[in-house]
């Protein structure tokens, strides 16, 4: 029996203090709810509420984790440029 692949996403949250948090998940809505309920990452527990400002889909968990690690190494200005370009493409 072949395993059905799940959608995997990398996301960026804007926290209440305007900081940015990057993570990955298979369910964006559930993960955002977890972060806002204090069941997300340790960092976001102290910086609630959070808003999701960026998300992109990846074919595998491995690809998403690699992209997450890359984004986490970026400077804030590069993350903001990614968020802005993503939001422009939505409209």
Automatic annotation (TrEMBL):
CDD domains: GIY-YIG_UPF0213
InterPro entries to which the protein is assigned, alphabetical: GIY-YIG_endonuc, GIY-YIG_endonuc_sf, UPF0213_domain
PANTHER family: UPF0213 PROTEIN YHBQ
Domain GIY-YIG positions: 6-81
Name of the protein: GIY-YIG domain-containing protein
One Pfam family hit: GIY-YIG
